[in-house]
Amino acid sequence: MFADFDFDVIVRSLPYLFFHGMAFTLTLTGLSLAGSLVLGTLVALMQLSSIRALSLLAMGYVNLMRALPLVLIIFWFYFLLPWIGQWVTGASRPIQVGAFTSALVTFTLFEAAYFAEIMRAGIQSIPKGQIAASQALGMTYWQTMGHVVLPQAFRAMIPLILTQTIILFQDTSLVYVLSIPDFLGAASKVAQRDGRLVEMYLFAAAVYFIISFAASTYVRHLQMRIAVVR
Amino acid sequence: MNYHWNWAIFWEPSPEGWGSYADMLMSGLYWTLATSIAAWIMALVLGVIVGVLRTMPYRIPAAFAYAYVELFRNIPLLVQMFLWFFVMPELVPEDFGRWLKQMPNAPFYTAVISLGFFTSARVAEQVRAGVDALPRGQRMAGTALGLTLTQVYRYVLMPMVFRIILPPLTSEFLNCIKNSSVALTIGLMELTARARSMQEFSFQVFEAFTAATLLYVAINLVVTFGMRWLEKSVAVPGYIGSSRT
Amino acid sequence: MKRSLIAAAMGLALVAAPAGAEELTGTLKKIKELGTITIGHRDSSIPFSYYDDRQQVIGYAMDLCYRIVDAVRDELKLPDLKVVLNPVTSATRIPLMANGTIDLECGSTTNNLERQKQVGFTITHFVTANRFVSKKANNLKTLDDLKGKTIVSTSGTANIKQINQINAERNLGMTILAAKDHAEGFLMMETDRAAAFVMDDILLYGLAANSKAPNDYVISADALSVEPYGIMLRRDDPQFKAVVDKAMINTYTSGAIEPIYKKWFLAPIPPRGVNLNLPMSEAFAKVVANPTDSGDPAAYK
Lengths: 230, 245, 301
Fold this sequence. Notes:
The complex is a heterotrimer.
Chain A (H helix, E strand, L loop, with lengths): L6 H41 L4 H16 L2 H20 L9 H26 L3 H9 L4 H31 L11 H12 L2 H33 L1
Helix pairs in contact in A: 1-2, 1-4, 1-7, 2-4, 3-4, 4-6, 5-6, 6-8, 7-8
Chain B lengths: L20 H35 L3 H15 L3 H15 L2 H9 L3 H28 L2 H9 L4 H16 L1 H14 L11 H12 L2 H30 L5 H4 L2
Chain C lengths: L1 H15 L9 H9 L1 E6 L2 E2 L3 E3 L5 E2 L1 H17 L5 E6 L5 H6 L5 E3 L12 E17 L14 E5 L3 H12 L5 E5 L2 H9 L5 E5 H9 L7 E3 L6 E9 L3 H16 L3 H9 L2 E2 L4 E2 L6 H8 L12
Parallel strand pairs in C: 1-5, 1-6, 8-9, 8-10
Antiparallel strand pairs in C: 2-3, 3-4, 7-10, 7-11, 7-12, 13-14
Helix pairs in contact in C: 1-8, 3-8
């Protein structure tokens, strides 16, 4: 079977695979990482809030998102977002949401639930005395969080956040179900067009593996370094 | 909003000729559970073996286990499913490949195998973390009593490890159930796929997805409570697990 | 059924009313305000709407759609109207039309009465039939030959619904897989994952002709149904429909359809330079002579 392995098909489609496919995947990963970190932190703060309604709302959100398969959530948002947009902006018709925006919002909202859990654990690992001390110094809630608690929590959480980011990077391949041309979508398009499944899927697997493996090896080193510093 | 709500849709007959749309979703639920439970059993067996190998004081098994975990953890599940479904049968001898492809229920077996391997790498990591979390003294004490390595693992380490890793295993099992939905890309008619085809046939998008959502939430609740009960009933007094409510 | 007939009648009555200088509503208003029109396209509906080897979206339905876009541009006097392309699949096209993501769906969508409850269709742009493709070597001629076999069709299509119904009615015991798009469906048949791929014959011709070994495949003689294709638009939007219908009728009566049809069905097409060589069918020639947007297969007999 490997005898008629066609490397040429990979070489020919490299520009399309990387400049379109991988660019889409990386942009989507990067932007939803930024979005979900911010949103995840807010949700974590809400969960830990002393206002019961807020913490219940945040808890419900996190639990619901974590109970559902990503594929189902991708479908939900692709169909639902325009209506939500209409409701939020009060427009007279559903808001137009492109494929990329839709995927971005989906991943941001989905990953935020996972980041919120990481964040909550991180915040809870900070000794209570520090918060009491900040309050004694007359700091407001946001000053305490922004200057004392969150910077420490983030540092402790970096390896977990990075690991979750690698998962996010792999999860973006699921936009395949919407026929959006991410890296895997691009590879499968070429595969189906040229009848070169074996080559393209093996190549895609290799690329995902190299990137994720390099990243997770780096995370492990980082983890050890942090562990030594402490 | 020009959307025509129709919650009675679930009782209308589905175009597949047997039963209603509700029955269609139920058959999806059945396949979701069948796939994820079969994959979970496979993941537990492989994961425990590989996880234990990783903590062995021998170089080659540990290296093998390391490679295994990294391989299955660093390729997206969807890509792994494509590899098993589309690529693998082309690489084996032709007759065997054809037999594989024409097997009835091929998407189900493929889904179980890919999901099983994928999840086993995660279980292996939990097992390794569990063994590492035990005080070194336990292993030493076992060896000092003259137990063989197998006996140390069997009677000293593993009983504690399983209790320690029950909570993370619960969430891995939940992940396994959720991940089974990825198999819709290779034609497995599980719950999400059924909700999708119900939407296509009836055009009732939101009703179909709401029903699927509620079913997934229900599965989650059942598993979470079941595992909590299990945690409590196997807890060893004095350990973290026992103080949980 | 009754409701849809009434709705259809109302739709016709509104279309008949002059869509002149009155206030813009619905899709036209939206296009005017945004300055963009969004076209939903397919990725492997050869030769209707698909990617060529430079990953550009091309096809017969795309050419027709660009004529519609020109008509909209003139109607709204928007010389710099922007066209946005959004990929859709058989499964996503109807929800995305309903939720406003796309304004026109240019591909190979069957116009039927059931779908008309959810979306609207302009004048029919092709008439095809539901058939299946299989490997010559397997010698599968009729549906009965598929008894007990695994077959595939594309999820979200009228075809998969129909084959499911036939499977139940005639007790054929087939396992029916749902592929995400036509290329994936063909692929499952090509790689022996399924014995046959059930789809509109014109798409099967296109896929087979563009495959690695076009001579290995055969398309069944049995037709399971007649399928008129229409470009999809939102339902209950008479003003937009009037403009789109006018553009389509104009394409047919002015004879502009001839070169477009020739370009895609009687000449070599990208990406492989295959000629489908399909002269206009009698059923479609009738539509060109008397344009219709009927979703009833009987109207095409």
